Amino acid sequence: MNENGTIPAIEMRGATVTAMRDNSFTVVADVNWSVAAGEFWVIAGQEQSGKSDLLMLAAGLMPPAGGSFKLLGDDLQDSGEGEPARRRVGFVFQGGHLFNQLTIAENIALPLQYQKDLPDAETAREVRRLLELLELTPLADVTPANVAANWRQRAALARALILRPEILLLDNPLAGLGARHQQWWLRFLDQLARGHDQMHGRPMTLVVTADDLRPWRQARRKFALLHEKRFIPLGGWNEVEATTDPVVKELLASQLENTP
Question: What are phi and psi of 68, to 5 degrees?
Fold first, then answer.
């Protein structure tokens, strides 16, 4: 428990994160990190800094190579443990990772079909709810290969939300999106953090990764940096702007440099 007597949503103590594709290779070492329920974290880092690997560990999809890790109070030292906690976590991969042989609606329905024994009519109703909420209804019967990347990413978000998770983890969700879609995502994620009506009004715990910090400027968020195999908490936005760390400065400048 933390100092307030509540159970953290995510808690790592001296955790070692290894690469997804090679668990003999350490990408981040000695991670000490606690995420309270309802917090919104942005984990920044350059390419190949271990952002995706850290997020996979935080989701309970891979175990730590060392140290301890708890998800919603459950000890996940062994990847075979903690299945109830993992079911309370939604995950959005960079690029969506949708199944091309399924339609957008069928992709969104998958978590319900795997984890809940619902009548077909109830499943269809839940899918329609997410299609409407994320403005995907016209694309319901289209396969991902025939959908623009902006909308595939939203479909992946819908799939992650259909079980109404307590924690939502998103791997670089703004990557490759146009300005209009970026603004939609920023607004929608803030609504989830505050408590969206469609999620029963409960504030959601969010963790996103980013290689560009500028779009995430917001006082309520907490920030951390991955650099040279270290997890470095930065604090709030004021602390981010005030830092002299050259890597953070680069992440703050990247959007401006890429703007036509």
Answer: -125, 155
For 160-200, write each residue's pLDDT tens digit.
999 999 999 999 999 989 899 999 999 999 999 999 988 88
pLDDT digits (tens, 9 = 90+) for 69-88: 999 999 876 545 557 788 89
pTM, whole model, 2 decimals?
0.90
Q: Give CA torsion, residues 163, 150, 203, 64, to 10 deg.
A: 70
DSSP state of 80: T
What are the extents of the domains in the chain?
Answer: 10-88+167-258, 100-164
Amino acid (1-letter code) at residue 54:
L
Sign of the dihedral defined by the CA atoms of residues 40, 44, 73, 159, in that order: positive
Helix axes 149-161, 104-115, angle to 10 degrees: 20
pLDDT for residue 215 is more than 70:
yes
- The span from the CA of 141 to the CA of 52, in Å, is 30
Residue with tokens 């680069």: 250
Of 202, 256, 152, 254, whose CA–CA distance to 37 is shortest?
A: 202
The CA distance from 180 to 136, in Å, is 16
The mean pLDDT of 95-121, rounded to a whole number, is: 90
Cα angle 77, 30, 174; round to 5: 90
Is domain 10-88+167-258 annotated with CATH 3.40.50.300? Answer: yes
